[in-house]
Amino acid sequence: MRKKAMFKSWRYNVLTKEHLRRLMADQILPQGALTDTWHVNNRVNMRLLDGLTDQQLAATILPRGRTVTSYFVHMHMARIYWLQRRAPALAKSLKKIPGGTASRASLRQALIDSGKAMGELFAEGERSGRMKGVKLGPVAFLGYALGHEGHHRGQILLHLKIAKLPVDQATQWSLWSWNKI
Questions:
Q1: What is the pLDDT of residue 129?
Q2: Which domains does the chain have, with CATH numbers?
Q3: Other residues' Cβ atoms within 10 Å of the Cβ of residue 45
Q4: Which of 14, 36, 68, 111 has CA atoms 20 to 30 A from the CA of 51?
Q5: SS3 for 57?
Q6: Distance (Å, rounded) from C-alpha 42 to C-alpha 49?
Q7: What pLDDT is attached to residue 160?
């Protein structure tokens, strides 16, 4: 009974969605900050992709499990999904990739194209201060998108470590050098 009461009181001390919305509306961000941050994230993905060998891209740790390539394909397909719901015109020009079947060159181009389209989505979100289908606005959606892609980069690194094909140290450290990317 006591735990329930503690949880209930804690829950009410958390900021509400409306309170967060008002706080974010009051923030002054330099024009282009969200878009620039998104593009840095995309360059981190490209740096990781470029730092992998063909053997690493094809690596899987389970007989019928995902390959490293499929994580990158998933990121691209998630971007298409987000764009179809928030800016269908931007999604129309993007090519879907069948699950896990992509050459390095086609995967690279797909991530570049979907990264640009997402950048345009964030630029429009910055101009209008709103984003279709996102109650908390463009800043919250950027956080969600960065979290999603960062999660999958971590999965890729762990996947390769378990497969005994770890990413070289220079590539690993470069993923954290956002000021230089």
A1: 86
A2: 31-174 (1.20.120.450)
A3: 22
A4: 36
A5: helix
A6: 11
A7: 96
**pLDDT score at 7:** 45
Burial class (CB in 10 A: 0-12, 13-18, 19+), 100: middle
d(CA 114, CA 72): 12
φ, ψ at 116 (rounded to 5°): -65, -45
User: How far apart, in whole angstroms, are the C-alpha atoms of residue 169 and residue 147?
Assistant: 23
Q: One-letter amino acid identity for 10?
A: W
pLDDT (tens digit per residue) in 19-59: 556 655 655 566 788 999 999 999 999 999 999 999 999 99
Kindly state the DSSP code that residue 30 receives in the 8-state scheme.
Answer: -
Alpha-carbon distance of 100 to 106, in angstroms, equals: 12
Measuring CA to CA, which residue among 163, 160, 157 is closest to residue 176? 157
The conformation of residue 171, written as its DSSP 8-state character, comes to H
Crossing angle (nearest 10°) for helices 33-50 and 68-86: 160
Determine the pLDDT at residue 59: 93
| Measured distance CA(28)–CA(98) in Å, rounded | 41
Q: Radius of gyration of the chain from Cα atoms?
A: 19
